[in-house]
Design a protein that fits this description.
- Strands 1, 2, 3, 4, 5, 6 and 7 form a seven-stranded mixed β-sheet that branches.
- The chain is globular and about 60 Å long.
- Strand 5, helix 4 (130-141) and strand 6 (148-151) form a beta-alpha-beta unit.
- It is 36% helix and 25% strand.
- It is α/β, with parallel strands linked by helices and 300 residues long.
Amino acid sequence: MPEFKSGFVTLIGRTNVGKSTLLNLLVGEKVAAIANKVQTTRTAIKGIVNRENSQIIFIDTPGIHKPKHKLNETMVETSFASIADCDIVMFLIEATSTEIGRGDAKILEKLKEIKKKTILIINKIDLVPKETLLRLIDLYQKEYPFEAVIPISATEEKYKEIILDEIEKNLKPGPAYYDIEEYTDQTLRQLAEETIREKALKLLQDEVPHGILVQVEKMKQRKNKNQEDIYDIEATIYCLRDSHKGIIIGKNGEMLKKIGRAARIEMEQNFGVKVNLKTWVKVKEDWLDNDSIVNQFKLK
């Protein structure tokens, strides 16, 4: 019988390269918010993959970008801090890159400093011809001794086992850190907040910039009149300006209803119970630079 292996794998890359999409593919469950916007992931989220001979704990980190607020600074700090403590780094880049940009160069610098085992994942290969891809692989291999280079399209299931096999090969023998039934260490409250925020970002498109914070104020389980389990969830969506508040609520409250409906349906699927969701919108102008809020996103 092969020896059981385990370890922590950090996904790192610039904003919007597809880290959360890849994490959800590898874990096979929705653990990270995906919206086609930069900085969707604000904190280091863990996804757990249990295989016959291994347990792989993935940490999806906020994308590397130029900080404009305390929140952004904390997000970048979180990403780099999680590299230092992991067993393997999965560095995700886009196949459409023609050179090593500033953000990727910064990540390479950090990798050279800490000398971690690193697998280079090149995402979105469907967007470029083979010659472009080969040039990019050559460019990066000259910069760092990667354990492997895996070109993928993060939305395609067929790459899942290729990546997991490569990671397992590079792990050391170790125990299972989490129960084999678990696929994330996020609490239901955090998953509820992530779900509402993702639906808001998707439905609002570019109308409201990134300054949305969701906080679940109340989450209580009870039985309904048919004796079925139901979660009562009350959440507040905080935004930066009154004008944003109007957009989030929408005409006759339609946008807020849409966000709530989409979030409730997904939560019921994820939690396996009925959900009664109530949402409010409030303005909190300074939250991006508010220490007590920003500290919630630091790596625990």
